[in-house]
Amino acid sequence: MPSSAYLIHPKVHTSFLSPTALQNLHYITNIPVPSTEDIPPKYALVRIRAAAVNPRDMMVIALDRETYPVKEANGIAPCADGAGEIEAVGEGSRWKKGERVIVQPSGWMDGDVPELEGLKVKGAEDVEGTLREFMVLEDSHLHRAPDHLSVTEMAALPVAGGTAVNTLLFGPVPLKKGMVVLTQGTGGVSCAVIQIASALGATVIVTSSSDEKLGIARKVGATHGINYRRNPDWEEEVLRLTNGKGVDHAVEIGGAQSIEQSVRATKHGGLISLVGILSEDKALNLVGPILFGAKTGELHSFSSRLLISKKREIADLGWIVRGVLGVNTAMLAKLLDIVQEHQLHPSIAREFEWKEAKEAFEYSIGWSGVGKIVIKVGD
Q1: Is pLDDT of 215 > 50?
Q2: Contact 300/321 with Cβ under 8 angstroms?
Q3: Which of 370, 369, 352 lies closest to 361, judged by CA?
Q4: pTM score
Q5: What's the rounded Cα separation, in Å, for the pair 25 and 11?
């Protein structure tokens, strides 16, 4: 019996923020299921049960190379987040039929972070993604799932949770108990940062557009919440909460529109991690080169176009700015250890059925809710 998948076949080039991009995504129902004889040694056939949506997926589907500068995808399924169970194994595989597994989202196993194209992130370029019913994967690209998670929670973990662990524990200033962490919004990465940082003993400050979302953020571990609609100069409130010192680590999700405020909210010598590009770029063009180049460096001054805060001058201060790119095997393994030890459950905003996959991507455009968007794979 054939299986189904959503495959990218280019028709239009547009912004990842445009629903028009979904013209490039096609539902295909006649894909053969690999037989046991087709599975190479030390590989496994995985029946994918759920896939989660990330902003990068829409960049790939939209062929938006200005935002996500890799070669165009053609004929592959999108999505890097996925989970399911072992359907069959090749000779010498360490997996057994029926075991629940989480998919490693990229080909970065260990060592220094490669260039963007060298990451081989699933669901981009010529690397098959998880928005399909079956995948044949190398043993090392699979991780045993924590027993307490549902399959949709399993799928919600790898990219958001792995990115949070990379950000908090694998950078130049690893998180320690008692540190103060700032993050923005209540999307998948932000919720993961809140949960993990608070579980490890940090004080977490989060910004959001509504008191309702801030209430949810507090339930998953945030210590302080700032409504940025009511407090547009939210960095001043961060400074007030930290007695004028600033945070130890700012996790920058918004991109070019908010990085200036994140810098002002961070203490001298603190760490600013660039994780997201959810806003349109502006004259200050730090985000792309730092994030997609996975650069780490000290930031001592900005372009003259950057506005200087009346209360906190930044030109003569120094920060460490790091672009966070990718999740390797050690990061995902560390994430799963933390999730197991602290019995964490990733926040899920909404689940979509298999035939509603396009609706899930459209729903994700400009998403500002709480948690991850997950697609249940298969009928």
Answers
A1: yes
A2: no
A3: 352
A4: 0.86
A5: 9
